[in-house]
Automatic annotation (TrEMBL), chain A:
The gene is Tsn. It comes from Grus americana (Whooping crane). GO terms for biological process: RNA metabolic process. The keyword Transferase does not apply. This is Translin. Coiled coil: none annotated. Keywords: Cytoplasm, DNA-binding, Endonuclease, Hydrolase, Magnesium, Metal-binding, Nuclease, Nucleus, RNA-binding. The keyword Transmembrane does not apply. Belongs to the translin family. DNA-binding protein that specifically recognizes consensus sequences at the breakpoint junctions in chromosomal translocations, mostly involving immunoglobulin (Ig)/T-cell receptor gene segments. Seems to recognize single-stranded DNA ends generated by staggered breaks occurring at recombination hot spots.
UniProtKB/TrEMBL annotation, chain B:
Residues 1-10 have a biased composition (Basic residues). Keywords: Cytoplasm, Developmental protein, Differentiation, DNA-binding, Golgi apparatus, Isopeptide bond, Magnesium, Metal-binding, Nucleus, Spermatogenesis, Ubl conjugation. Ring-shaped heterooctamer of six TSN and two TSNAX subunits. Interacts with GOLGA3, TSNAXIP1, SUN1 and AKAP9. Interacts with the homodimeric form of C1D following gamma-radiation. Interacts with TSN and C1D in a mutually exclusive manner. It comes from Grus americana (Whooping crane). This is Translin-associated protein X. Mg(2+) binds at E125, E192. GO terms for cellular component: Golgi apparatus; nucleus; perinuclear region of cytoplasm.
Amino acid sequence: MSVSDMFIALQGVLTADQDIREEIRKVVQALEQTAREILTLLQGVHQGAGFQDIPKKCQKAREHFGTVRTQLESLKTKFPADQYYRFHEHWRFVLQRLVFLAAFVVFLESETLVTREAVAEILGIEADREQGFHLDIEDYLSGVLTLASELARLAVNSVTAGDYSRPLRISTFINELDSGFRLLNLKNDSLRKRYDGLKYDVKKIEEVVYDLSIRGLNKEATGGVGGEK
Amino acid sequence: GSGGFRKRKHDNFPHGQRKEEKENVNPSSALMTSFKSFQLELDTRHDKYERLVKLSRDITIESKRTIFLLHRFTSAPNGEEILNESEVKLDAVRRKIKQVAQELIGEDMYQFHRAISPGLQEYVEAVSFQYFIKTRSLISVEEINKQLIFTVENREETTNMTSNSHDKQPHTWSLKVTPVDYLLGVADLTGELMRLCISSVGNGDIDTPFELSQFLRQIYDGFTFIGNTGPYEVSKKLYTLKQSLAKVENACYTLKVRGSEIPKHMLADVFSTKTELIDQEEGLS
């Protein structure tokens, strides 16, 4: 084979690769759009009036996850199943965001941390690499860390809206999450950088709890469910 | 210390309170159990990555040494010996690559691609350099990959490598050099060819430079054909490639212009080294 033939063949391979990336980008754009819609929907809980109809908002958000499922379904068809990590960078960001949104919904509903399997189910993908399009563990953990900062914000806004018990429950939750993350040996990568931000969320929530306790507002609310003392 | 949080900014303060919190968290809760499994999963992944980085570094070092060895080819009279030695060295490199392939059995290769890519590029460079010296042509990516298919012939060697994946090993497995790694390796090869050209001028060999300039021009044309279809790294190498080509072309120019001016007694020297080289090449085939 001559040198120029070899390069013609390689060029063909590279062009095919670019086409795949183009297709992936299109689907990812649609996914980002849906993710934004869900986020807007859930942002409503930070407003004073929003605290009453949290279940309704969650219900609506779950309906939107149906769109996400079909969009992810079409993403799967755009590239060979065994080359997930070759194109991972394209959907990494949006997948982390979707994990956050799913985790937020689950937290609002049940005040628990969504499991990796449950997120995978909400998104209509696999939890395990062997079974096809899956949720990478680092993406899951990144999404969970985003949830932590959102909850720090929610704690502040709950107080403003007169809900004094929620910050205490959030505090218990975040503390457990913090202990969980401390079990991990993270490398010096993006996940580690985001984990480093968790302590500020913890601190923020502790401040809120403190403000409530010195004013005796926590006792009045719950009688100390998960309170500090 | 419930009043302690305001001093949280100071790193040395919060330890007391942290401990208290830790006791509040139930170590066998669902969340903690799942994070323990995450710890295991992440550690396994990082360990594998580190092992691959180490292998990749070994591959890089050995490939570089092979290239240095091959540079001695033109100047030394014992050409065949050097080629044989380089083959032995490359076999050693391939054994390392076999270990890489073994680590990647059942994995998505691209997940760990960043760890092994530098080593593979260096290997492409070495193997294509050797191939060029032997055949004066460019090795194809298929040819390279053909040499990276491994079988389990020697049992004892495979047992002491990885013990856990031993029982479910397939009979053959392979590692594929990606087109991009191949391209980057070939781009590096041109730098070696430029050095080969300059040193062969130094040795009084006046055929090789012309051959090399033609070959380099073909490769350069190939790269310009690909242009910006390829990833960023490929277009970055294009600049260095152009410089190498310019050096070789200038060397050829100088040879052509000055060729008529070489004194007779030196020409005899030049031709004697040239025939010697041709003999060596014939001896190989």
